[in-house]
From TrEMBL:
<feature type="domain" description="Prokaryotic-type class I peptide chain release factors">
    <location>
        <begin position="22"/>
        <end position="124"/>
    </location>
</feature>
<dbReference type="GO" id="GO:0005739">
    <property type="term" value="C:mitochondrion"/>
</dbReference>
<comment type="function">
    <text>Part of a mitoribosome-associated quality control pathway that prevents aberrant translation by responding to interruptions during elongation. As heterodimer with MTRES1, ejects the unfinished nascent chain and peptidyl transfer RNA (tRNA), respectively, from stalled ribosomes. Recruitment of mitoribosome biogenesis factors to these quality control intermediates suggests additional roles for MTRES1 and MTRF during mitoribosome rescue.</text>
</comment>
<dbReference type="GO" id="GO:0003747">
    <property type="term" value="F:translation release factor activity"/>
</dbReference>
<protein>
    <recommendedName>
        <fullName>Mitochondrial translation release factor in rescue</fullName>
    </recommendedName>
</protein>
<feature type="compositionally biased region" description="Basic and acidic residues">
    <location>
        <begin position="113"/>
        <end position="131"/>
    </location>
</feature>
<dbReference type="InterPro" id="IPR045853">
    <property type="entry name" value="Pep_chain_release_fac_I_sf"/>
</dbReference>
<keyword id="KW-0648">Protein biosynthesis</keyword>
<keyword id="KW-0496">Mitochondrion</keyword>
<feature type="region of interest" description="Disordered">
    <location>
        <begin position="96"/>
        <end position="131"/>
    </location>
</feature>
<dbReference type="InterPro" id="IPR000352">
    <property type="entry name" value="Pep_chain_release_fac_I"/>
</dbReference>
<keyword id="KW-0809">Transit peptide</keyword>
<feature type="compositionally biased region" description="Basic and acidic residues">
    <location>
        <begin position="96"/>
        <end position="105"/>
    </location>
</feature>
<keyword id="KW-0488">Methylation</keyword>
<keyword id="KW-0175">Coiled coil</keyword>
<comment type="subunit">
    <text>Interacts (via C-terminus) with MTRES1 (via S4 domain). Associates with mitoribosomal S39 large subunit, peptidyl tRNA and nascent chain.</text>
</comment>
<comment type="similarity">
    <text>Belongs to the prokaryotic/mitochondrial release factor family.</text>
</comment>
Length: 131
């Protein structure tokens, strides 16, 4: 069983219709100035969306694009995934997909390590054959 913080970090990775729904009445939305690189485009426009799910207290800040509408859409998707993780925990599709991708990554690492060992062994055998 993972802590809630680790579960919430898995969000933003899933495209599923099996997530818990959000109603606009549960959301509190603000538009603020974003931060980071971008110069005048960032410093003079309020295109960063801060979305809060009032019942759970989860807050999402989205400033991935220069478009307010796109940021609103992305923020809602991420928030929906985080709320789903918050309430369902390890039964959430988002959590299951994250676990599956981690397992796949570890398997790929293991295979790469085996191949490296095989190559190393092969080179050693070639060195012995030359002598």
């Amino acid at each position: 069983s993972l802590p809630r913080a680790a579960l919430l970090q898995a969000a933003g990775k899933k495209n599923s219709s099996n997530l818990l729904g959000l109603t606009e009445a549960e959301l509190q939305e603000q538009f603020v100035r974003g931060d980071g690189p971008g110069g005048q485009a960032t410093n003079k426009t309020n295109n960063c969306v801060v979305l809060k799910h009032i019942p759970s207290g989860i807050v999402v800040k989205c400033h991935q694009t220069r478009s307010v509408e796109q940021n609103r859409k992305i923020a809602r998707e991420i928030l929906q995934e985080k709320v789903d993780l918050f309430y369902k925990g390890e039964d959430s599709d988002v959590f299951k997909e994250k676990k599956a991708s981690e397992k796949k990554k570890q398997e790929k690492k293991r295979r790469a390590k085996e191949n490296l060992e095989r190559k190393k062994h092969f080179k050693e055998m070639q060195q012995l054959d030359k002598k």
